[in-house]
From TrEMBL:
Keywords (A to Z) from UniProt: Hydrolase, Signal
Lineage start: Bacteria, Bacillati, Actinomycetota, Actinomycetes, Kineosporiales
Record keyword Magnesium present: no
UniProt keyword Signal present: yes
Domain of life per record: Bacteria
Record protein name field: Alpha/beta fold hydrolase
Amino acid sequence: MNGRRAAAVGAVATAAAATLTGAALTATAVSFARAVVTPRRHKPDDLEVLQVGPHRVVLSATVDTVVPGRYGVWTDGGRGHFRVGEVLESREERVTRELLGVDAGTPAPGRARWNQYYFAGDPAVALGLPHEDVLVPSDVGALPCWSLPGPVDGGSDTWAVLVHGRGATREEALRAVPVLHALGVPCLVPAYRNDADAPTVKPGLYGLGDTEWRDVEAVARYALDRGARRLLLVGWSMGGAIVLQFVARSPLAEHVTALVLDGPVVDWFDVLDHQARQAGVPVRLGRLGLQLLGHPVGRRLVGVSGPVDLRAMDWVRRAQELQLPVLLLHSDADDYVPSGPSQRLAQARPDLITYVASSTARHTKEWNVDPQGWESAVREFVTSRLEAGA
């Protein structure tokens, strides 16, 4: 083989290798982006119940079971449920916690699943509060929704819409119901598109708030048609991104009096950079995946039905567009949605945002670690809004 031919062969080999490398990198970016927008419906057991006593239970030590606060544990494939509180003893492989109550089944040694919401079941089962199961019409079908009325002797004309986060269930919102109910605020707790109990919109992927806000709009319309004059929106994690899109894009936003956001996503780029690092994916490839979500052709590789505009959901950049009072609760120990963007947003708009920081709670578990403090902050904030609109 002469030198010219060898050089040509080498160039072809180099080009082929570059193509293969580029394809592999793109595949990694696509895989990362697809994981971000894919609902995780199957949640396997993630711990062991080792021993059960009259007032205590011994669990396998995991990143969840050793943290402070109050939580729940599902057993027997979700048919059983009990609640745990204070950590009484912690060793390398096991942790003993206070047993606060049994809601269903009989606790026994075996496989189980952690419940970060603490409560399990609908409002009547979990809280002993009367509610109605309603179906809210929307452009994607009927959305299941728990409707909790105000007091019989007349409640507030401000209704709350409680929006859970990515991959969560409506049970996540139950932690906010007692304090709002005590204030006389009727509550609506809806499912939204592509939840396990809600309509599936092909291809069954999340819009990260870019599409789900329309479901909140449908619930808001339902409330206004039934006597609500003002709306209080409460969102956890991606639920925060959803309600922020609602107030930015819906004509019904004029009826919103305030927002309560717990561990919210206010900058998807920051969140997904963090999650890329946790997953061992180079941040530049994670960013490529995010660019694919918004690209007319690239989004087809990921599988989303329409481009997802993450820049429109960057509220640190859009801070000056906020027009509503916000109670923002976020823990510096949040391992899923870092608190940095929330801090920067609060610093940019101290005129509107009441920021409540904490230091030990993991993602959206501020209530679990300090329920009295969380409820006190919500009570004071919501009371001020009710009085302002009286």
